[in-house]
Every structure is written in C-alpha cells, then in structure tokens.
Amino acid sequence: MVAQDAHAHAGPQGFIRKYVFSLDHKVIGLQYYFLALAAVFVGMFLSLLMRIHMIWPTAILPLVGEIRPETYLQLLTMHGTIMVFFVLTTAPQSGFGNYFLPIQIGAPDMAFPVLNMLSFWTTFVAFVVMLAAFFAVGGAPLHGWTGYAPLSALTNSGPGEQLGADLWITSIAIFCIASLMGALNFITTVLDLRAKGMTMMRMPLTCWAWLITAILGLLAFGVLLSAGILLLLDRNLGTSFYVPLVVVNGQVMGHKGGSPLLWQHLFWFFGHPEVYIAILPGMGVASQLLSTFARKPIFGYKAMVYAIMAIGILGFVVWGHHMFMSGMSPYSAFAFSIMTMAIGVPSAIKTFNWLGTLYKAKIRFQTPMLYAIGFVSLFVSGGLSGPFLAQPVLDIPLHDTAFVVGHFHLIMGVAAIFGMFAGTYYWFPKMFGRMMNESLGRIHFVFTLIGTYCIFMPMHYLGMAGQPRRYSQFTEVAYLQHLMPLNRFITYAAFVTIAAQVIFVINLFWSMFKGPKASDNPWESTTLEWTTATPPPHDNFAGHTPVVYHGPYEYSVPGAAKDYVMQTDPAGVTAH
Amino acid sequence: MSDMAVPHGMAGEFEPSLFGAYSKKIGMWLFLLSDTLTFGALLFAYSYGRISNPDWPTPFHKESIINATIMTGCLLSSSLTMVLGVLAARRGDRSWTRNWILFTMFFGVAFIVLHGMEWTKLIAEGMTPSKNPWSSTVQQFGGTFFTLTGMHMMHVTIGVIYLGVVALRKKFLPILLICWLAAWLGTPADSVFHVGAHVILIGAIVAAMIMFLKPKDYDAHDVEIAGLYWHFVDLVWMFIFPLVYLMSTRITG
Ligand code: HEM
Ligand SMILES: [Cu+2]
What we know:
Chain A is mostly helical. Chain A has helices at 2-8, 15-20, 25-55, 69-88, 90-105, 113-135, 163-192, 205-236, 260-294, 301-314, 330-342, 344-358, 367-389, 392-398, 402-432, 438-464, 484-514, and strands at 60-61, 65-66, 247-248, 251-252.
C-alpha cells in the first residue's frame, strides 16, 4: 500500500526531525499542547494581576510595579487574547485533535503532514508576535480581545495602541492562517482517511466534534483574516473602513465615513463561531468519557451528532446577540434573539443525553470522569445565563457588566479547560505510557471545581448589581462599596485556584517520568487508540490498517464476554 | 514520510472518501471555501461603506470600463484555455497540457499588466488608499478599490506562478527571476509594477522551496486542482467587476 510504504519505516531520526520539525501528527499534537500550556500560565498570571489591582489598586507589586488603569486594560486585552486564541482554540482542537483524530479513525497520519507541521509553526510565530506586544513602545494594546474600533483603529488612541496594537493584529492574522491550514487538514483527514468499517456514524463523538469545529474554523477564520487586514490598513495606510470622523485629544483625525459597526459585524461573525470552536471539542471529550466511565453506550448517539451539527449551523447566524447595545434595528435584534435561543435546543439535547448516559449507571469515579462530570456541570451553569442575555431587554442592563464575564468564563473558559483536563487525565497513559497519580488528580479536581465556581458564580450578582466590566478601579466608587467584600472573596478564590494548578503541573511532569507504567488500555475503552501500543508507533498501527466492526460506545452489551466491545473486535458483528 | 499528502489507501483498506474525491482535491475545495469567506468579508466591507455613503463617487467612464471589460475577457478566455488544459491532461497529452496552461498564464499576465496600468493611472490622478480626487467626503473609495482589486490581483499573480510551476516545473524559476528583474528595474519608481515586482520574487522563493523539498512530476490531478484554483480566481473577478467598476460608472443621459 502506498499509504503504508510511506509510514511503515521507522520514524525519522535525529532530534530536530523527530521533535522539532516533526511531521508526525502525535508530536505536533504534543507541541500544540505544550504551547497552550505555556500560554495558559501567561494568561493566568495576567488575570491574577488584574484581580489584585481590583482590590488593592495602589499596591506596588514586585517585578510588575504599580498597575495603572491603562496597565489594567493592557492586562485584560492580553489575558483575553492569549486565553481565547492560544489556549482554548489551540489545545482542545489542535492539540488533542491532532494527536487522537487520526488514531481514532484508523489513519496513519493527517492527510497533509507538511501542512500540519507548517500550521503548528505558524501558530508558534503568532504566539511570539503576540508576546512581543508586551515589549513594544507603549506596551501591549488596550482594546480588549474583541478589538473594537475606533479604539483599535487609531494609532494615538492610547498607550499600547501604537506598535503594540499592530503586533496584536498581525499576530491574530498569522493565527488565522495557521488555523485555516489546520482546519483544512482535519476535514480532509476525516473525509478521506477513515479505516475500513469506520463509517461516519461509527466515529467516536470526539471525532465528530473535531470535524465540526474544523468546519467552523475554516469558515470563521477566513473572515477574521479579512477584518484584521482592513484594520491594519486603517491604522497604517489611513483608510477609513472602521473609522468615522473622530476627534482625539482635540485633534481631528484624517478619517471619514467609516463605521465601527463594520468591525463588530465582521468580528462577531467570527467571534460567535469561535466560542463554539472552544467548547465543541470539550463536548466530544465529555461524551466519550461519560460513556466509558459509566460503562454504558452514549445515550442517543445520533441525536448527539445532529445536535453538534445544528450548533455548528446556528452558530453562524447569532452573532448579532453581541451587538444588542450597538443601536441595531429592533427587528434584527429580535431575529438574532430568536436564533440565539434556538441554539439552546441542541445544547439542551446534548445535556440531557449526558445525563441520560449517567442515569442508573455503575459509574467509575476516576479523575478523567470527575472532570467530564465537572464539564457538564459548568456547561449547564454557564449556559443557563445565555438565554437571559439573549433577550435584548435583559441584555441592555447586563451587557458590559460582570454578568457577561461570569457567563462566558463558566461556559467557555472553565468548561473548555475542564474538557482539557479530562482529556489530559484520560489520554495521558496513551501519550506518555505512564499513569497519572489518582489522588493528586482528585485533590486538583476538588480545588479547581469549587475554586472556579467561587470565582465566577458571584460575578453574576456583581453584574446584576451594576458592576461594569473592563473598568479597573472600584474602590473609590460609592455605589459599589457594598460589593467590595464579594470582590475580595473572588480575588482570594482566584489565589487558591491558581495555586491549586501547581498540583496539576507536578502531577503532569512527575508522572511523565516516574508514574507507574500504563497498559495498552487502562480504562477499558473501546475506541481505536486503545488497540495500539502505548505510546503508539510512528505510523499508529505498526504497519497495518485496523478494520472496524462496531460503533464507538458498545459498553455492557448483553451477551458479550466483557463489559465492553472494542471497535475492532470481529466477533459479534451484529450491533449497529 | 517524504510525501506531502498521505495517498489514499488502495485495495479497500480505507472507507471510500465521502465525496469520492482524493485528499488534495478536497483540500483545494476547502481552501477555496475559506477563501470565499475571506473575499466575502471584503465585499461585505465594501458594500457596507457604499450603503452608508450615498454620494459614492462614480469616476469610471469609457476608458476604465473598456479596459476592465478587456480584462474580464482575458480572464474568461483563460478559464476556457484552462479547461482545455485539464482535458488534455486527462487524455495524457503532455505537450498540449503545457501549451494550454501557457495560454492560460498568458491571459493571466495580460490581466495583471492591464490592471497594473489602470492602477498606475488612478494613482497618477491622485487616488490613494485614503483619498481620491472625486470626493472629499467619501474616503473609502480608494481604500475599498485598492483592497479588493489588490487582493484579487495577488490571487491572480499567485495563480500564474502556480500554473507555471505545474507546467514547467524547475524551468520556470529562471523565467520568474527574469520577470522579477524586468518588472523591478524596467519600470519607473512611481509605477505599481516597480513595487509589485517583489511579489514575483517572494512567489519564486516559495515555489523553489516547494519544488526542491519535494521534487515530483505533476500529473493530471495536479493540473485539475490548479484549474480549480484558477476558475475560482476568475469567478471572484466576476463579482468585483460589476460591483466595483460597473456600479461606479457615471451614467449621463
Ligand atoms: C444557550 C447558549 C448560549 C446563549 C443563549 C448565549 C448568549 C450570549 C449572549 C446573548 C451574549 C452577549 C452578552 C453581552 O455581551 O451583552 C453572550 C456572550 C458571550 N458568550 Fe454566550 N451564549 C450561549 C452559550 C455560550 C457558549 C457555549 C459559549 C462558549 C463556549 C459562550 C461564550 C460567550 C462569550 C465568550 C461571550 C462574551 C464575549 C465578549 O463580549 O467578550 N456562550 N452569550
Ligand atoms: Cu455569541
């Protein structure tokens, strides 16, 4: 077989070819994973600085010095951008997806290995450019992760809006190109490289999630790329796409006739699908884990697939719910509101199917499962505030308050991170050949779950009480005084939660070298990655292509010898 | 693993591909899909600016329209020659494959040259990305024009280089370098070709890297995929021509 010839030989030799410019999707997956891990620590550090500033605005911090209001905005911008792009978009999709999508469908590699390598290194360059913004003259930009014009479109609108903002936009544009390459590769791989018997409806739900996420990325990042290019032109060539006639510091700027709303439309056309890009892979992982550890088939496999498709499609027609306050026509606000609530239906279908999977199950409460259940919990608590925000009348007082911050951190930030933790604890044995420590995992879970709820739940109350978002200093504001104890509580909770992440890091690196050796299938799962060696050989299945006879979640099948049937098990070729 | 794409397994080791297409062709279709969105966003931005500025200038009259019509004709003809090239490649007729691709490239180059001359003329008349001589209030005229047509022209240029690589492979590199030098040194500093020439250089470098990292003969599939790209670029122009040119004509009775 041509495909086999290309892969059957031993993997490339030499450090550079093997670990740096590797074409092996597994190495690339790990590269993405560790890039995201580095990014998440940068992002977390920035958020801690913000929380400190909110309750001790005049504190002089070691290394950082005083945090001025504009510094706060810079921290906020970089925190949001790094987290959304380099963590939530990078690890769940590009990291785990790269490593496990080909193995789970029985392919020897991605469809385009060179493109795969290029997309990782392009992402890496984007990250370096993003970090460079910290060191630019004037510092990092302060226009937020959404980069609203005209603030972002003028070079003299604030410190950090000079070179720093150019670097920020350039980094985003590079990131778009990297993501487009990755998305193209993922889709082609699923369409073209499924092993014999791996029909679409036998794919694990993780693969469905990665596929739909890739489609969203393919369509959304192309638009953000254009939006970013136009923003760069506005800033550097004096065009007026996003800038109307404005006066900054008494000085009339040269622009005329543009519209800041154009940026909002283009950005949110990308931005709403982007939030699903962050969460769908986590949904896939949760589905896979709930079924595995509940030892039951996933409840309603087909409904899960169609729900994920519906979310993908509806995700492209709801972007206006971020713009209710922009003065849009009440008719379009109404349309966007209806569409947004419609997206709650497939989301609810998924939630009920998860609960149905757990119902009357003999659950194995191991760390990966704890995180999968945590994911469902966060998805529900964060998701329930969505339909509130989807009402224009309710959104008008809630928009740009801490309420929105609570909503999207629970559902996008923390839920997606829980998906990553679940994936890490679940797949670690396959990736590194060793087990992670169970007790440390549980301690880490308890601290993280309770900690994140303590941080983000109270924000809903803060928002309803009128605490605005993106403001740096509340200590002097009279009407917010009674909220200060709650704000202090949140900051303390953040300290504890962030400190608890050290447990994870220790567990991760200690287990990598010292953990007990893992068997090929420690969780008794059914999907293809557990049929191959640990860690998998260069071509995934040591020279042959697996043949698939079963759906992905055949647990506790009546009459079967064990309580699970591997997808490759030729016996009992009946079910599905 | 030296091959760029994992070839689809033979002998039924894999499920048949979902759309019956091989990896590279799917890859190109997906790229074109995302590129559609990229152009779509630019066209949206253009329409947005136009609708919010009712007194949009209409400076394109006779010469501009004639010129743009000839350019459109070039692209239409090039699509035809491209189809003939793909058909020749399917027949296995190597020399006609190459000839038809060369015709296609000729029309592509003609398009670029005509378009570049138009740009140079407009710039000489005082049009820049931030202002234009026909309206002092509607600044977006220049910005949208240069962005849309510039993005498209870049796609055409990449397309010509892509076709050249498919048709001539390494022999194409010296030709590219000569074109680069000719366009750069042979034009006055205020011509768009003077600066634009460097796109050719970058294209040549990328093409060289691809060809040296992965030397191979291009087959009928590669011609077909290149054709997909080329038709797409033509199609985009069929949107730009009416929206940017025809809608900015002064119609006097
Ligand atoms: C039932 C489903 C959901 C509904 C109805 C919903 C609704 C909304 C609405 C109306 C807003 C705008 C609030 C405002 O700015 O005033 C919003 C903001 C947001 N949502 Fe959701 N949402 C849902 C699910 C999700 C999911 C699944 C994610 C991510 C995984 C998410 C992430 C976000 C983010 C990041 C923002 C804020 C963006 C920003 O302004 O910085 N939402 N949501
Ligand atoms: Cu949204």
